[in-house]
């Protein structure tokens, strides 16, 4: 059969939905407790300033985002961004979730997280829930930047701050809240917004208490909305999906993460399962290249069946 052939298995698209039910990330209790950090790119064309990547950091609860156009995706660039654009402007996050890219796993980043006191969490590179939000933002960002950029798209880095501000000052469909308001406790006053008086001086001695109460209500509403959206998304995602079981020593193939072109193989391998870390996470080792070891989730695994003898 078709599944018994390694080459066929690696190249034929799966017509059914990928296996494994979805396990959403529980929204944190407060702002700046869990954030995701990501590099997007390389973006073509490179700008006049030599920038070809966007590094971004998103607060999971508020959806507030910080971005910067950068020339490379190194650990040095990630560390500089975290210090200059995040910590020195907004304070230190409690936990940051990243993928396993070398720019985030490098010793420099590990030491930085340790010294500052940030808990560094890793997502598996294929996981749909941890990366869905990032991918949707990147798609939104790309479309808006393209609309604002010049004809040759060589000034997209100059448009990035405007697009980021627009994203953070618009009601987010998941939380039904404005990210800016969840961070600052007030609605953003936009350019040319004439509804506000020029100067307002509050004499209310309970201003701080009221502000905290207001933020508390907004935060709870955002959490409720996120959980509601996750439930709906999980229902859609899990529909008609099977929950396969794998065990140590099973031979499998892994979905190719970064296909360079449409002719690249869809599945890499074969790999052998050497360790199970959780219900849906495994450590696998390549059958021939023993130094090639990966951590993967169940949704990117397909079994490789041995061809039965025709004798």
TrEMBL record:
Residues 23-187 form the Integrase catalytic domain. One of its GO terms (biological process) is DNA integration. InterPro entries: Integrase_cat-core, Retrovirus_Pol_polyprotein, RNaseH-like_sf, RNaseH_sf. It comes from the Eukaryota. One of its GO terms (molecular function) is nucleic acid binding. This is Integrase catalytic domain-containing protein. It comes from Rotaria socialis.
